[in-house]
Amino acid sequence: MVVGDISTGTELLVIGAGPGGYVAAIRAAQKGIDTTLVERDAYGGTCLNHGCIPSKAYITATDLAHRAGHAEEMGIHADPVVDMAGLRDWKDGVVGQLTGGVEKLCKANGVNLVEGTARFDSPTKVRVAHGGEGQGSESIEFEHCIVATGSRPIEIPGFSYGDDPVLSSRDALALDSVPDRLVVVGAGYIGMELSTVFAKLGTDVTVVEMLDDVLPGYEDDVARVVRTRAEELGVEFHFGEGAAEWRDGNDGGIVVATETEDGETSEYDADKVLVAVGRAPVSDTLDLDAAGVETDDKGFIGTDDQCRTNVDSIFAVGDVAGEPMLAHVGSKEGIVAAEVVAGEPAALDYQACPAAVFTDPEIGTVGMTEAEAEEAGFDPVVGQMPFNASGRALTTGHANGFVRVVADEATGFVLGGQVVGPEASELVAELALAVEMGATLEDVAATVHTHPTLAEATMEACENALGQAIHTLNR
Amino acid sequence: MIEEFKLPDVGEGVAEGELVEWHVEPGDTVTEDQVVAEVETDKALVEVPSPYNGTVKELLAEEGEVVPVGNVIITFEVPGEGDEEAAAGAADAEAEPAPDADAEPDEGEDETEAADTPDARVFAPPSVRRLARELGVDLAAVDGSGPGGRITEGDVRTSADTGDDAADEGGPAAVTFSGRSATSRGDAGDGETGEAVGESTPAGRSQTLAAPATRKLAQEEGVDIDDVPTDEEREGAAFVAPDDVRAYAEAQRAAQEADATAVTADAEASGDADSTGTATAAEPVEPAEAAEPVSVAGSEGDERVPYRGVRRAIGEQMQRSKYTAPHVSHHDTAVVDDLVALRAELKPHAEEQGVSLTYMPFVMAAVVKALKEFPVLNAVLDEEAEEIVYRKEYNLGVAVATDAGLMVPVVRDVDRKGAVELASDLGGLVERARDRDISRAEMQGSTFTLTNFGAIGGEYATPIINYPEVAILGLGAIEQRPVVEDGEVVARHTLPLSLSIDHRVVDGADAGQFTNRVIELLENPRLLLL
Asked: How does B313-328 read in b/e, with b if 16+ C-beta sit within 10 Å?
């Protein structure tokens, strides 16, 4: 007991108020559990403050500006000007509304909110250091704890986020001016989304990627649609190159040096360099050893299908508990953990976990690809509908991409789907429901879809898989 | 993680086994295929192998205990894949592996009901998964009745009712969370009434919610989705699941089945009634001797007609009866000159009351009198309770040919009615059956069945019992045939009788004595007045 310490007790302590933690806290409080939620920074976590939400605000706004300026074929002539400070203020307003909402919801549900950074003292106690000078700290004893501390951008050698020209995704979403030249390190989903944003703002974007294509983990024909569009927007790609270092350039900018596996070097002039090579768990701030909680060599906390760690009374949800690092998975895990704490037989047994990439065009995927279905022992049948055969897609001015559905030929069960094209992030929801419910191709094909919509493409893809598509040639 | 192991199906049709000896104790390390127990069935002594590499956690059956197939007998501690986050890591953050490493344990090879899908994938919606967790049901061991084998809420509840799945330790008591009632499913013929379980009365709604695949199923089964009864509602409208459609279609068929051989246009004729729904809709008929389906090569020009619908339902009922009840048929002949004369004498009197008098009321009266003296033929075998139920009602099923197929109306309380009343009842039932105006209740509850193949012609047959009844009487044609009397061959009206019995319940002596008594009453019809 340190002098000046306050010691309190709670049934459930949740550490981290991102989409995993705040959802867990609210659900636990709804179940009548005395719940305390500790957050060191901002309610809503990375997702609301520095990730999903602000990036979507930028993507939408820059797309609006770009489309308005490139719609001559529709008879629209405009030359939009983007005021970055204005855009940032609008984005901050959106974020503020959401984070304020999270705080209100927590309070309204009876969650005790504590601001500060939590560290474990023992398997049943944390100490929370309050931010700022002389704010002191307090100890909180708990019966159960849910760790939801999330993740942070990975730094690579030679590129410190502390250096002014080096941007993390978080920094990129807080710029108050548009860089003329930007080098993006990494062609994963964050790199591709932000490359598109800055390309539409008029920045000369160069992407360097160690692997040989954009969006590793996605099928070639899906990634190709996005890469082709990015190239149309002026994004330049260099594959097989790893970023080595940056230095000041002669023109007031910087030079980013890259190196191939064979030792060939290249240099690219830029004003800023954005590093987007993935995210690492925030588990090193917690003193997990004091609680006996084990992590793997990357720092991820191991959990079972009830989100329980190796310590029975301690759970972990969201990014800190490992892949897939997706906000919606964190929220689902938060609910499961809270219900398990409440003594219910909850478990993570979802069959479908959709994911979206907000590039231009968007990607939405769920379940298995054809290759994964084959590997799993199914005899897959595939149906596809290209958006250039969709009336609604043509009227949006963006008809690149397709909807693909993968099903088990023997039973007709929908096993997965890949959508690349306009509103793919929304369209994938229907396929997710199909996979989760164990729907068959026939169920989806026989469901009436509104005309004219993009969603009809999903119906048509299922018809195509059944060999009875109307608007496309059957395989 | 903990894996449960259920007593596997250790032999054809064996429902239980005696656990003779354990070869392992809690704490023992076992390897896959290592023998853990010996189980004796009435057929053999069987060694039960472990499906896992792991440690024995708990033995859940005593040596000497008789264990039903499907009961958990032992649990293993298995070094688990379940310890990892269900979703496998992907190369980068945006990759999205669906967690197919789902919580369902892989069933052992011996688990005969294990879902037969690759990747141990089980197809069931989230609400059903949650229910399974609440009821402690292992989804991998549930046979799905939905399209493509999708598991429904009803499947899980049925499994929970019958499977004796041990609920997870530490899980709370089962909670009813949705407020929705499970698809109702009755037990197999309960021996009290032998009534069809599926509701066959059309619901006649104007609007029904159902998945497209369910609607297609209804179309295939030839039923109107708006007529399918259901207890389930969604957003205030009736919701029909595939199980409901099957149950209703089955009940409809059950209400129309009859001996396929007895196609008679004669109102008094009665086909072999197979009406009162003995198999539940929820329970496919599985004959004890189920053979591999036979494929027929055939030749060009053959006509192939799908074996389904009413035809298949009749087939399944026949198969169930034939392979469940050991049939014995007993044949004899009644000389019925007196009966022919009596009917001719009474016919005009009956007509004055607006009733057409056939032979059938006399046969019914004779049969009921004989049943009272030999009650074992008016019994049913309640297999579940292991009891023979002697029915105290005398309700006789009589089949009628209609445009919609064969129907089997039941004449109730035959023992309390005279010939004219019986004739009138039967006439009314026949008319309503032909007009499709007959209620489900009027086709249920028979305790003994009559089949009149004689309306078409012929003498003897081997009728199949209307299971779970234990006897059926077939009537040949009443014709003049040669009969030897006092060393002379004379022409007499005779009625060939063919009685089939379930030899589990009825012995040959009973059958012979019962038939003798029926013959006596038909040869001296005035005895029916006593």
From this structure: bbebbbbbbebbbebe
> CB B90 to CB A278 under 8 A?
no
Contact A285, A119 (CB under 8 A): yes
A contacts of B150 (beta carbons < 8 Å): 413, 438
Residue of B nearest to A315 (CA): B85
Interface contact flag, B123 A343, Cβ < 8 Å: no
Decide: A195 and A230 in contact? Cβ < 8 Å.
yes
Q: Which of B133, B149, B212 comes nearest A411 by C-beta?
A: B149
Answer for the pair A419, A358: CB distance below 8 angstroms, yes or no: no
Just list the catalytic residues of A. 451
Q: Residue B228: what are its φ and ψ, rounded to 5°?
A: -75, 120
Tokens linked to A18: 């991102």
Structure token pair of residue A99: 């984070």
Alpha helices in A158-211 (DSSP H): 169-172, 189-200
Cβ–Cβ below 8 Å for A438 and B119: no
* Interface subset of A 312-351, CB within 8 angstroms of B: 321-326, 329, 343-351
Q: Beta B66-68 vs B479-485: how paired, if at all?
A: unpaired
Three-class SS state of A340: helix
**Residue B20 C-alpha, separation from nearest chain A C-alpha, in angstroms:** 35
* pLDDT string in tens for chain B (530-residue length): 788 888 876 554 567 777 888 888 888 888 887 888 887 765 566 778 888 888 888 888 888 788 887 788 888 888 754 333 333 333 333 333 333 333 333 333 333 333 345 656 889 988 899 889 888 888 988 988 888 889 998 899 888 887 543 333 333 322 222 232 232 333 333 333 333 334 556 777 777 777 777 777 887 788 888 888 887 776 667 888 888 888 888 777 765 553 333 333 233 333 333 333 333 333 333 444 445 677 787 788 888 877 765 567 667 878 888 999 999 999 999 999 999 999 999 999 888 888 888 899 999 999 999 999 999 999 999 888 889 999 999 999 887 666 655 667 899 999 999 888 898 898 888 788 777 677 767 878 899 999 888 877 889 999 889 888 999 999 999 999 999 999 999 999 999 999 999 999 999 999 999 999 999 999 999 998 88
Pairing mode of beta strands B396-398, B448-451: parallel
Half-sphere exposure of A77 (CA within 13 A, CB side): 1
Residues of A in contact with B102 (CB under 8 A): 349, 351
Strand partners, B410: B397
